[in-house]
Specification:
Elements (H helix, E strand, L loop, with lengths): L3 H14 L5 E6 L12 H8 L2 E3 L3 E3 L2 E8 L8 E6 L4 E6 L9 E7 L5 E6 L5 E9 L12 E3 L16 H10 L4 H6 L9 H11 L12 H20 L41 E5 L2 E5 L13
Antiparallel strand pairs: 1-7, 2-4, 3-4, 4-5, 5-9, 6-8, 7-8, 9-10, 11-12
Helix pairs in contact: 1-6, 3-6, 5-6
The chain binds a DNA duplex (16 and 16 nucleotides) through loops.
Length: 303
DNA sequence: AGATGTTCCTGGATGC
DNA sequence: TGCATCCAGGAACATC
């Protein structure tokens, strides 16, 4: 299940394997993979052909590769945008290798080298070509760095970005009338935090998932942020989390972080701080794992 | 308008 | 053994 650290691992892999290379052609093997691209699969493929892939960028769980016309000097105005969803993979490898069962899109390059493949079993992920526009959540960076894909202008900065504003995040939390976990999963408040890392951040902060956001103190909000940063940083250090074979990095190697999780998936196992068995609640049609002792349910809960 | 519920998808695990 | 059902979850979209 790719969340921010896993997507960053993929981004780094692409930086090494596709930067500076020119796409020759693209083949869409399943239209659902480009469903968000209104102009359709043929136009999608046409937009990639002949364009140079620059260094990939990331915000939260979204990944994009700026596309430059060959020989052009101006800043790129379009990008190939990717979201891996539940089971998406971006794989780089020998062009002649066997086709994966769930291969959705294949891009080959003019140099005849490694191809780029989008493989996605559950097809929650997608690719599209889009415009790059000025960033409203982040701060302007070096030339061309202040641009983000138009379809994700509403996605907030993620906690590992310099542009992330903790005070603005705290203010947004206090204005909301909802539970802290729902807020953490809302990509317009903070991006890159999914179900797994939300539970981990709350365990580290000692807060229950149903804690009303409007009652959070600045210190509590800071603990949640710090927890998210720590757990995602640790996951990044070991190459991402993997619970099954669905997540692999760009070269097909799995991550090794799952053994380090403190809450997620540990139902009935002892809390690593106090020994109380971890409990599982169903919330938002998802599992939430927490320690009943370290993360007591608030008297007034919000969902 | 903000909060909350629904939906999309596949295949491994589980139950009878 | 075989078939049916459950479960995983990001985020757009629908509804209250």
């Amino acid at each position: 299940m790719p969340e921010l650290p896993e997507v960053e691992v993929v981004r780094r892999g692409l930086e090494r394997w596709t930067s500076g290379r020119t796409a020759a052609s693209a083949e869409v093997l399943h239209p659902r993979a480009v469903r968000r691209y209104a102009a359709g699969p043929a136009d999608f493929a046409g937009r990639l052909a002949g364009r140079v892939m620059l260094a990939p960028r990331r915000r939260g769980k979204y990944l994009w590769i700026p596309l430059q016309d060959a020989g052009a000097a101006q800043e790129p105005s379009e990008a190939l945008l990717a979201h891996l969803g539940m089971s998406g993979q971006l794989l780089v490898g020998e062009p002649g290798r066997e086709r994966e069962k769930h291969l959705r899109v294949r891009i080959v390059f003019t140099d005849g080298g490694h191809d780029l493949r989008f493989v996605d079993q559950r097809t929650f992920g997608h690719l599209m070509v889009c415009e790059l526009v000025p960033d409203t959540f982040g701060v302007p960076g070096p030339a061309g760095q202040g641009l983000v894909p138009e379809p994700i202008v509403h996605i907030a900065a993620d906690p590992l970005e310099e542009a992330f504003d903790p005070e603005a995040f705290f203010g947004a939390l206090r204005r909301r009338k909802t539970g802290i976990k729902r807020a953490l999963l809302d990509q317009s408040l903070i991006s890159g935090v999914g179900n797994i890392y939300a539970d981990e951040a709350l365990w580290r902060a000692g807060l229950h998932w149903a804690r009303p956001t409007e009652t959070l103190t600045r210190a509590e909000a800071a603990r949640v942020l710090e927890g998210a940063r720590e757990v995602m940083g640790a996951a990044l250090d070991v190459g991402g989390t993997s619970f099954d074979s669905l997540y692999v990095n760009v070269n097909g190697e799995s991550g090794y972080f799952e053994r380090s999780l403190d809450a997620y998936g540990r139902r009935d196992e002892p809390c690593r701080r106090c020994g109380t068995p971890i409990r599982r609640d169903v919330f938002m049609n998802r599992s939430s794992y927490s320690c009943p002792t370290c993360q007591p349910r608030p008297r007034r809960a919000r969902y």
